[in-house]
Write a structure and sequence with these properties.
The chain has helices at residues 2-17, 22-25, 29-36, 62-74, 85-93, 108-113, 154-161, 172-181, 191-200, 229-244, 247-256, and strands at residues 38-43, 52-53, 59-60, 77-82, 99-100, 114-116, 121-123, 125-130, 146-150, 165-169, 186-190, 206-211, 216-218, 221-223. By secondary structure, the protein is an alpha/beta fold. The protein has a 3-stranded parallel beta sheet, with helices on both faces. Strands 11-8-12 form a 3-stranded antiparallel beta sheet. A two-stranded antiparallel ribbon has the order 2-3. β9 (146-150), α7 and β10 form a beta-alpha-beta unit.
């Protein structure tokens, strides 16, 4: 199936490019990726179980395998570039890499600047505090409180929307440890990431006190522009194929213990 997908994609691309002037074809990102045989993917590498390092210091995680699967569907190799969250989009803007695959939420602000693929996962945001905290029981209680989150993340933006003062951090572990130590009052993060952390750290004095009502859409952002349109189409076909053949569900259960790749029922 994957080889057939790659061959079909290559044929469609060749037929399509036959009608495009050479100067325009040279700007097509998908053509460039297929020519070099490598898909450059940026991610944090510090956000379990999405992207992280195992005990052997190997880069693993749900998004790592999603990226590998997408590269395989395109018929190329996946090359992962790790960086801090607030630098991932800057690197995408400057064409240092082709994609960011890092549990990226689709937001109105980001959609003004980037084109997004179809969603490949759906997650709620969890509000986490120390077990002995009785002041915060909902997002509305964040007014005047302090939180810790990755700089520029949707979690930081949401906390600030509720009136919190946010301290920027670089990793999920650091975020949780700041709550545990009492340096901040709370943190917001993906429900599945919080549950994974608490499962790995059963003695951590943490509790979830609230969830967002609606699930965030997780998708892959690309730079806007006609030169990226064919790549966006190819990625959507790959995501559709991965959903149909069970790849996404299998990876989700492997890393999250449940299927977060299905759209929640309304």
């Amino acid at each position: 199936m994957k080889k057939l997908f790659a061959l079909t994609l290559a044929l469609a691309l060749c037929l399509g490019l036959a009608c495009i002037p050479a100067a325009a074809a040279e700007k097509d990102l998908l053509t460039d990726i297929l020519d070099r045989g490598v898909l450059n993917i940026a991610m944090e590498g510090t956000w379990a179980p999405w992207t992280y390092h195992n005990e052997e210091d190997e880069l693993v995680g749900f998004d790592v395998e999603v990226g590998q699967a997408i590269a395989s569907y395109l018929g190329v190799e996946a090359n992962f570039v790790e960086g801090e969250w607030d630098g991932l989009f800057a690197g995408l803007d400057s064409s240092r890499y082709d994609l960011v695959i890092n549990g990226v939420d689709v937001t109105e602000e980001r959609s003004e600047k980037y084109d997004f693929t179809d969603p490949y996962a759906y997650i709620r945001t969890a509000l986490v505090v120390r077990q002995d905290n009785t002041d915060i029981n909902s997002f509305e209680d964040l007014e005047g409180k302090t939180t810790s989150n990755s700089i520029g993340s949707t979690y930081m933006e949401l906390a600030e929307d509720y009136g919190a003062t946010c301290e920027g951090v670089d990793s999920l572990g650091e975020t949780m440890q700041m709550v545990e130590s009492g340096r901040v009052d709370a943190t917001l993060n993906a429900e599945v990431s919080v549950l994974d952390y608490m499962a790995q750290q059963p003695d951590a004095p943490l509790k979830i006190v609230d969830y967002t009502d609606e699930a965030n859409l997780i998708a892959i952002p690309l730079r806007k522009g006609e030169e990226n349109a064919s790549l966006l189409d190819a990625l959507n076909v790959a995501i559709s194929e991965m959903a149909e053949d069970g790849t996404l569900t299998e990876l989700s259960i492997k890393y999250f213990g449940s299927d977060i790749t299905q759209a929640p029922e309304e």
